[in-house]
Design goal:
transport; single chain; 76% helix; mainly alpha; MetI-like fold; transmembrane; dipeptide transmembrane transporter activity; membrane; cell membrane
């Protein structure tokens, strides 16, 4: 188990390094921050002074080495636009993002997993087709389209809820619903598929042949084994709690990490974008590590395989 997790940890560190490297070069090759922040009409002397002050006049490789050298010392850089520590700006936006993504995450679980189990236990019935049709519709509609539909219906049409902002708990309802419906649909579909695959296994038929009640077979044999592939999707959803609301925050004018990312990218605020991507990458790889650990816990074959070198 130790070797199994060590290999996953090394892979996670390499992933973060590659994400930061890719982001570093893409950001610098896609536009000049001096032109974006000071405008193209600024005097050439001012633009040159800006580039020199922020180290943009150095070669690309020198900037790259300086960036990682500072990063290893815990220096994430400063915002070119606000002259504030970049990571501080990112961290102060996280509570607002978690205020909508955490409730949405639990709502996904409460809707998606029971719906998938219900559909699997009633396979090919009218209710199964209804649940799966709703699931297909749920994850096929883009989140910004769904958000606009909810605004038109509940804010403009009925006037029940505000269309944007964050001054009261009512403002969070539409963003939470928008975030949760697509994820719940994906969970329902994956849970149904996992349950159907498990229920077709010989050990399920053997348990039924022994005279066990069907509820006991489902609870003690089908559900634990069907949980293993579903964990992957849940882990991805946990990893996307920080970055998963970019579009929704823009639609509902919610002042979280997503809106900060959009504005920072638009103005080429390099340190802020890089700090955001570092946080997102760290969150994703941490959730993947937790998923790998849960795999090893739920499935002893992975632990034994890791010891003998036969697994991942």
């Amino acid at each position: 188990m130790l070797n199994y997790m060590a290999s996953r940890l090394l892979r996670a560190l390499v992933t973060i390094f590659l994400v930061l490297t890719f982001a570093f070069f893409i950001l610098r090759l896609s536009g000049d921050p001096a032109m974006m922040i000071m405008s193209a009409e600024a005097p050439p002397e001012a633009l040159a002074a800006f580039r020199q002050g922020w180290g943009l006049d150095l070669s690309l490789w020198q900037q790259y080495l300086n960036y990682f050298s500072n990063l290893l010392q815990g220096n994430f850089g400063q915002s070119m636009r606000d002259s504030r520590p970049a990571m501080e700006m990112v961290l102060e936006r996280i509570p607002a993002t978690l205020a909508i993504t955490l409730p949405a995450f639990f709502l996904k679980l409460l809707i998606g997993i029971p719906a998938g189990i219900f559909a699997a236990l009633n396979r090919n019935s009218l209710l199964d087709r209804l649940v799966m049709s709703l699931a297909v519709a749920g994850y096929s509609v883009p989140s910004f389209v769904l958000g606009l539909i909810l605004v038109l219906l509940f804010a403009v049409g009925l006037g029940w809820l505000p269309s944007g902002g964050n001054t009261s708990w009512q403002h969070a309802i539409l963003p939470i619903v928008t975030l949760s419906l697509g994820g719940a649909a994906i969970l329902a579909r994956f849970t149904r598929s996992a349950m159907l695959e498990v229920m077709g296994q010989p050990y399920i038929r053997t348990a039924s042949a022994k005279g066990l009640k069907w509820q006991s077979v489902v609870r003690n044999h089908a559900l634990p084994n069907a949980a293993i592939p579903t964990i992957t999707i849940i882990g991805f959803m946990v990893g996307s709690l920080i970055a998963g609301a970019v579009v929704v925050e823009s639609v509902f004018s919610w002042p979280g990490v997503g809106r900060l990312l959009v504005s920072a990218v638009a103005s080429r605020d390099l340190a802020v974008v890089q700090s955001l991507l570092l946080l997102v990458a760290a969150t994703m790889v941490t959730s993947n590590l937790l998923v790998d650990a849960l795999y090893g816990w739920f499935d002893p074959r992975l632990r034994s395989g890791a010891k003998t070198g036969r697994a991942g």
